[in-house]
Amino acid sequence: MPELPEVEVTRRSFADRIQSARIVDLRMGKPLRWPLGVTPLSLQGRHVVGVRRRGKYLLLDLDEGLLLLHLGMSGSLNFAPVQPEAGPHDHMDLVTDKGVLRLHDPRRFGAVVWAPSERAVKAQKLLGHLGVEPLDGGFEVHAFALALKKRQSAIKQVLLAGDIVVAVGNIYASEVLFMAGIRPTTQAARLSKPRVARLHAAIVQVLTRAVQQGGSTLKDFVSAEGRTGYFQLEAAVYGRAGAPCRVCATPIRSLLQGQRTTFYCPTCQKP
DNA sequence: CCATATACCTGGCAGC
DNA sequence: TGCTGCCAGGTATATG
Known about the structure:
21% strand
């Protein structure tokens, strides 16, 4: 579910409301991707200092240590003054004096991990080799082009790998390549400088627009205040195999790349 | 170092 | 109606 826009929309939907909240309790449900790494009891009395995003991870900074949250494929957060009794897929309740932050995650690919510091997070090899943030101003065309020159695999898979630029997932990789007019199977290293520049601009534009639209709700994404996203309504190619291209009416095609489905327009996107 | 495959887990849906 | 197989927004890890 959650790529950069969904994670960012989620962050914005509760960051201010949980700011300075005091942790009363932490209740964990079924096991997630990794163990919490600390006893929930020891978090009682800590305060939430801020909520940041790094790639698709959310970082809850506490006055001592931090909680690292990941939504996996099917996760969503909800922040409300009071939560009803937890259902079978609610696996974390962070109870604070300002409200309860609940993680709902049917597939349990998500994670909640405590670390004493960001240095410790890296030591646990969690936020290992993440690339640059595409919307932070540190995303430079020239460095992007240089990095792509070193990669022989298909551009779609290089974008998904996230070690050059983070947080572009399976939906937005297809969308970004459509906007840039680039065939997803094109070898990254073979892209000309002007085409890399178009791709760079497309990444920034598509992700910015998707955040504005509240993310994409394909199935069940909702922000922490329960809002669905609208970007999927304007998706050019994702999920539209067989449907006419919105630009040239050629039927959109799909293919498998590294076990993930890719969508593209064979006319608008050149190898 | 690089590239690709695999595992994790559950629910929804098409097809029989 | 009920079963089976396949698909789904991610990513650390193993393997070549």
